[in-house]
Structures are given as C-alpha cells and as structure tokens.
Hints:
The chain is α/β, with parallel strands linked by helices. The protein has a single domain, classed as Spore Coat Polysaccharide Biosynthesis Protein SpsA, Chain A (Alpha-Beta Complex), CATH 3.90.550. The protein has 9 helices and 8 strands. The strands form 2 sheets. The chain has a 6-stranded mixed sheet, with helices on both faces. A two-stranded antiparallel ribbon has the order 4-8. The chain is globular. The model has no long low-confidence stretch (mean pLDDT 93). One of its GO terms (biological process) is mannosyl-inositol phosphorylceramide biosynthetic process. It comes from Acetobacter aceti NBRC 14818. GO terms for molecular function: mannosyltransferase activity. Keywords: Transferase.
Amino acid sequence: xxxxxxxxxxxxxxxxxxxxxxxxxxxxxxxxxxxxxxxxxxxxxxxxxxxxxxxxxxxxxxxxxxxxxxxxxxxxxxxxxxxxxxxxxxxxxxxxxxxxxxxxxxxxxxxxxxxxxxxxxxxxxxxxxxxxxxxxxxxxxxxxxxxxxxxxxxxxxxxxxxxxxxxxxxxxxxxxxxxxxxxxxxxxxxxxxxxxxxxxxxxxxxxxxxxxxxxxxxxxxxxxxxxxxxxxxxxxxxxxxxxxxxxxxxxxxxxxxxxxxxxxxxxxxxxxx
Length: 273
C-alpha cells in the first residue's frame, strides 16, 4: 500500500475495512486540512450539474401542521427549485420501479420511519441528484447559500462529537454520484444482513450517520490508495453542519416526543432499550 506523506495515519486501517478508524479519519482529515472544506463566501448558486431539486420525506401522506409549515418554508425560500415530498407508499413504488423488488423488500424491512427515510433518500438522490433535507427544518434563506459558490459534485456536512460523523440529514449531489452510490451500497448490505441474520446494531449505525461516515471514508481511502486521487481532487467537499444555519434551522417538533417519531432506542421488536 502506497500512501502520500500527507495521508492521515488512519487511512490504511480504513482501507482495510475497519469501522472506528473511519470516524477518526474524518476528524483528523478535517483538522489537518487533508479533507477539503467549503470556504464561507457570499452567493446563492449551485455548481453546474446539481439539479435544482429538493427532496423531502414524511412517512404519511397526511402531514402534521408543524411539518407542513416547515415544508412551506422550504418552498418559499427556494422558488427556483422543484420540490418533491414523498411518503412510505410513494417511496416504495419509486424504489421498486428503479431498483427492483429485492430492494423494495429491503425497504419493507426498515422497521422505523427514520430508517425508511434514510433508505429512500439515498435511492432518490442517487437517481436524480439535487438536495435532500430533513422535514424537521425551517428555511430562512435559499438552500444553495450553503454551497457558498464552491465547485463540487457532492457536499456532505459533518458534526463534531463522540465520534465525529457525517450527518445524513442534508446532502447536495449530482445524479449517479459515486459517493452516494458507495453509501447506498453499504446501506443495502447492512439491511440485507439484518434480513438474513437478524443482526442489528442501531438505526444510527445501520442506515444513518454511521453508515454514511463509514462508506464515505472508505470511498475516499480507495480513491487515494487505488487510484492516487487525493480528496481535494475527488469533487467531494465538506462543511460543518453548523453552517446549514446559513439557510435553515433544525426544529424541535412535537412528533419527536413519541417512539414512532424518534429513532433513538428503536429496535426491530419496537421496544425501547
């Protein structure tokens, strides 16, 4: 294995397929400057190749008032964008049509609404590109402002914590993007393993920020080691999740107080840990 002198020490372990080094690589890559970040700048434009399209998900075709109000803010502040809101039923139809019955059955195996949203958003984003943003967000400016005039094919946001992770509540990507494909593939593998064996760690790991972080870091490792492509040449770019406040804020909605509206502690049996 040949690594460049500036490669973080965690890169080789990530390349070998180890899990936790993926999260460490994200942290060290950001702190060392090995991973490229969007520089804050004025501007409301997206790179060429990013469709002007916003995708959102709510499990039911009937939205609570607080969710409906939030969705309307997205429409109001992004008038030049097509807006697509799907529910469980329409999401499954899309997955069956574009990915086949096998993947639709994996979608069916997602026992919590958050998992189904995680599953669908990657399928949709890979097929169509554009912007995905969670419904528990209230816009106050165009979402394109978060891009800050940077040039990229895929933007992800990261959160600093224990561990650092890539947030999966906001993406910007081109259609058929290789980073989104890598995340989608690993998520398919996770849900397929759950169906076959019943093995399931938690929603965060299997379909959420955990799989998003692991797949992204492994993709970068393969690009670097197998193809000699540095992150700065990969067309993938990072921003801290705190930067999304340039365009929207997360909302503390009432539905999260109920088990069916909160993924934390959800298990395949529906019981809280």
